Every structure is written in C-alpha cells, then in structure tokens.
Amino acid sequence: MAADDVLAELAALRGGDLPTHGGRTLAYVYDSALPGLDALAASAHALASSVNGLDPTAFPSLLRLENDVVAAAARLLGGGPGTVGAVTSGGTESCLLAVQAARDARPEVAEPEIVLPETAHAAFHKAAHYFGVRAVVVPVEATTFRADPAAMAAAITGSTVLVVASAPSYAHGVIDPVAEIAAAARAAGVRCHVDACIGGWVLPHAEVAPFDLSVPGVTSLSVDLHKYAYCPKGTSVLLHASAELRRAQYFASAAWPGYTMLNSTMQSTRSGGPLAAAWAVLRHIGPDGYRDLAARALASTRRIVDGIAATPGLRVLGEPESTLAAFAGLDVDVFVVADEMKARGWYVQPQFASGPSPANLHITVTAANDGHEDAFLADLRDAVDAARAAGPPDVGPDVVAFVAALDPDGLTGEQFAGLLAAAGMGSGDQVLPDRMAAVNTLLAAARPRLRERLLVEFLGVLYTPSE
C-alpha cells in the first residue's frame, strides 16, 4: 500500500475511538489543552525512536535525558541529594519494580508479604502474582475510603517487605495518611512505597498533607509522566530515596554466551522515543506551566464535584483531594447513567462495588475540563433524569441468578457464549453493544473471582484476529 493510503486507513480506524482531546473522555487520557504540545512530543519522539535504551554507554543521549527527567521528578517530590530513580513504561511497571526491589532486598524472608490498603491499585496485586509475594489487604475506613494507619501497622510482620500508601487512590481520589503509615513502616524497619502515579505531578501544587519523599520513612515513590505531566503514553518514574534502596531493582546476568545482560527496568530493549518526548514536554512546559495546569485541573475538579454533590440522585464518595472523584446513585442506576452520558458525548468510567464502595462512576479531570464544567454538569443532570425514567437495565432475574451461581474454575466455553448472547454481545468487531448497562449489571452480579474469569474470556474474544 502507498504510505498515504496506510495513514488514511489508520485515521479511519481511529475515528471509532473515544476522543483523546477536549476533556470529554474522563478516564484513560490526559489533555493539557496546550496548543502545539502534541507536535513537539511527536517530533522529539521521532528523533529518538530508533535509539535503544538497553545500553546507555552506546547511546549517551538517553542517559542524559533519563537523568534529567529523574532529577526533575526528585525536585518536585521531596527528593534529597541521594535520590535516584528510573524511567519506566508506566505506572504498573513502576509499582512492579518497587515490589520486586523490596522482595529481592530481603532474601532471608522465605514468604515475603506486602501490606496494602484495599484501595491500592491492582498493579500491586499483579506484582504479588508475578513475584510470588503475598498481598496482605487491609480494610480502609468505610466512609472516607482512606487507609487506616493503625490497621496497616498491625498488619506488618517479620515477613513484610513493603508497605504501600496511595496519593491519591485511583478509585475515589483520596490521599492515604502517608506520614502515619510511613512512620509505622520505618519503626518496623520496612520499606514504604507511595503510589503517586496519578497525583504526583499535581499534588505538590495543592494544599494537602505531605506525601512525598520528604516524609520520614517513605523509601520509594512512583509518578507517571503520561498522566498530569501531560507527556505521551509510555513514561513513568520510580524514585528511590537512595542508590542502596534501588540496587535490588537492577538485573544482571552473565549466564549465557552473549553480552552480559544488565537492565535497570523490566524491559531490555527500550525505544528512546517515549523518553525523549517526555523530556521535551517537561522542558517546554516548565515548573510555572505545570503549576498553572495543576491549578486549573484542581479548580475544575472542585467545581465538578460540587455540581455532582448538588445533583439530585447522586452522592460523591469520600472527599476527593486531587483531580479524581467517584459518585454513586441514590435512586438511579449508575450503569444506565454512564450510557446516557456516552450518548451525550462524555465517557465516565463504571466501577463495581467492592468492600465499602458501592457501584459508582469514576471521573478523571484534566486542565482541558477547565471552563467546560457547566456543560458536563448540565448533561449529567439530563443523563440522571433519563436514567431515572428508564429504570434499571432489562436483565432477567434468572440470568442474574445464573451468573451469580457460576463456578469460575468450571466455566465452560458454552456457558460463556450463552452469557455473551444474553448480554446482547456479538463477535469480532461488533462484540460490544452500544449500551453497556446490561453487561455491567451481569458483571456486577458476579463474584470478583468469577468477574476476573469472565473478563479474561472476554479479552480472549476481543483479541482473536478475523479470518
């Protein structure tokens, strides 16, 4: 195919995606609304896309870029003279490495554990699964959704290698009491990681309690640049308070006849493109620019949260302190509200009930939402009214009971195919219905392990090439 035809086909495919600019997709994407930023990032990415971060001695430009980016993160997030770090592919990799480094630094612990609040990001459960670490999950306070420092401290044992706090937690946008949690970890001689992946580039400009490396006992912190640093996807930073703490993160192997493998992250070959793009965006926006973007996003969040709280039929969960929030329904089905919002051009993210948190809708607010709060809130009120009039999705109680009774370990292909049909889902490119309330209702009826299994099967359906 000719190059122009290839790009035209790609553009046509992209036409079916949620919008990544304009503030109407309130999850997954982060929009600064700054003109020219995408072009700058794309140009910087192109300049370094063919360079391989596997060997910094062969490509010293990437070494300089990474040290610059880590230094910028350390300055912003309370790092001292000995603070070091690494640029990773995203928040999940940063969290994985924090767990891996904590585990490998304690080889004498036969059955290592990590202590985390139930609101901690699922990346830590992924890390526990990958690295053979037991996740000790501690209930949070039922109304604030913040971690309970006393309960966290009580969960620390001689097998604990890492304690985790969130700043903020993704689901509700609240900040855990980091100082108290870090103090308990420090008293026990255990590392403490702060997951600031989503809030790290915003919270330094907000009036919140200290949460970063300046807090005694905090030994590592993760912050994503492709979130509120508004860099392209594929860049996060994992900071360690010292080189000694970082050492266990590195991997080296001379146990083969090729070059001695030496990796600072989970990847070996790494394109220099995402790093160069992040470096360029950070330098272009600068500290004052980020202060302004954070102020705009925070103010927009406050206006939206206040408007949601004033909307009949809705309630805000907890007290959001950053740019994230979640709201539940009082007399409306939130899954239907989500469909009604999508019909009006907005994407809000459904979240299922878990522990003290009921089924709800999550929003991630960015600087691009500044000035558009009234439009969002007006459509939300209309969506709530429409959802109230429509009532819950028409899913038969026998189908819900069938789902609730399924055995995740014994689920058959025939059962799953029947569920797809019951939910009005097809196959191939048409697998997803226009409205997802019925699907979400069925998933909500499933126990967590069953929901995991159902979604794994669904992912397999999605990622099946057409013949």
Automatic annotation (TrEMBL):
Keyword Lyase belongs to the record: yes
Top-rank lineage group of the source organism: Bacteria
Keywords: Lyase, Pyridoxal phosphate
Entry keyword annotation includes Lyase: yes
Cofactor(s) needed: pyridoxal 5'-phosphate
Family to which this protein belongs: Belongs to the group II decarboxylase family. Sphingosine-1-phosphate lyase subfamily.
Protein name in the entry: Pyridoxal phosphate-dependent decarboxylase family protein
UniProt source species: Actinokineospora guangxiensis
